[in-house]
Amino acid sequence: MATVQVTSDTFKKEVLEHQGVVVVDFYADWCGPCKIVAPILDELSEEKKDVKFVKVNVDENQELAGNFSVFSIPTFLIFKDGAVKNQFVGAHSKEGFEEEIDRVVTG
What we know:
CATH topology: Glutaredoxin
Strand order of the largest sheet: 1-3-2-4-5
Strand content: 25-35%
Order of helices and strands: EHEHEHEEH
Structural class: alpha/beta
Number of domains: 1
Helix content: 25-40%
Distance between the termini: 23 Å
CATH class: Alpha Beta
């Protein structure tokens, strides 16, 4: 499953109402670390079929970013059945992302 772009208008449907695990990437086009992790997230989205991956452009969705206290980017929130279960900031290795995701999936 490819990474889906979401906005303030589609966030509720795509993330909050989704049954299961959703990884939300709060990013900006000008952010270097965001560009570094993008291919890792794309790869994980293909490998982890039971996890949904979405991206939120903070420049275009500032209110949404503010609602989730996103002050630095990239910030990642992992939701399970509509509730935030994990939040972390900064570029991670593929293994680092897998650990954070698995903690929510198995927890």
